[in-house]
Amino acid sequence: MHVLIINGSPRVKKYSNTNAILEKFTEGLCENGTTFEQYEISDKNSWDQIRQSYDRNTIILVALPLYVESIPGLLIEFLETLTPKSDGSKMVFLLQGGFMEGVQLRCGEACLKIIADKLGCEYMGTLVKGDNFCIRFFEGEWRENITGAYADMGREFAAHGNFNSKACKKFTGPETIPFFVRIHVGHILNTQAKTGFEQMAAVLDCNKPLDYKPY
Ligand SMILES: Cc1cc2nc3c(=O)[nH]c(=O)nc-3n(C[C@H](O)[C@H](O)[C@H](O)COP(=O)(O)O)c2cc1C
């Protein structure tokens, strides 16, 4: 099996959490002979090349971050330039986000199914997982702790050619976090995290309060 992988993050490859996830995912994917080619939509100069690869390949995996509870605008802009297919191509998605709860990625997931249909591809599922904010701030073992399990999902995909297995569904983790945890996290955000954000803003010469609402 050969897979075209498109990193749909607007963030450049070097800083993209999606790319760090794909590094682990493809480790597992390739263990038994599956091959892949990968492109980044953040590099607009490569869009022609990605389109050619999309026309050539029949197994297409789009990996993307959730931005403002939806699909990044740059990725939508790119997908709109693709010509719908009629060669039996299959499309899968790896959707990841910063916040932990699976539920907030479900709207994006539904949208991805529609996109696969509109591109004339058979929809083969979406691997959904949040809690990935910190990947790019960590290296080595700490990063491995977050991204490592994606290698198993690469193996799952190589074995089944979709993201519909029980293991993939379980991979999402909790749909919602318990009420008391939400209260606790809310408290941290309003105290320690707020102070941290204010310090970061000051370093960036921001002279307006963080809750400033000019409009
Ligand atoms: C503009 C922007 C909007 C975001 N919106 C969400 C969101 O609605 N929900 C969420 O869980 N994470 C959100 N995130 C966090 C990203 O999904 C997360 O950090 C992801 O791992 C980034 O991947 P990337 O570095 O490949 O772009 C947002 C990040 C940015 C920059």
Report how far the terminal alpha carbons are from each other: 52 Å
Question: Could you tell me which ligands this complex binds, including any ions or cofactors?
Answer: flavin mononucleotide
Question: What form results from the Cα inertia axes?
Answer: globular
Strand pairing plus helix content: what structural class? alpha/beta
Molecular structure report:
With 215 residues, the protein is α/β, with parallel strands linked by helices. It folds into two domains: 2-171, Rossmann fold; 178-215, no CATH class. It is 43% helix and 16% strand. The longest helix has 25 residues, at 179-203. The mean pLDDT is 96. The structure holds flavin mononucleotide (FMN). Flavin mononucleotide (FMN) binds next to helix 1. The site of flavin mononucleotide has 18 residues, from helix 1.
Outline of this structure?
This protein has 215 residues and is α/β, with parallel strands linked by helices. Helix content is 43%, strand content 16%.
Please describe the topology of this protein:
Layout: E1 2-7, H1 17-29, E2 35-40, H2 47-56, E3 59-65, H3 73-79, E4 90-96, H4 106-118, E5 122-129, H5 140-147, H6 150-160, H7 166-171, H8 179-203
Parallel strand pairs: 1-2, 1-3, 3-4, 4-5
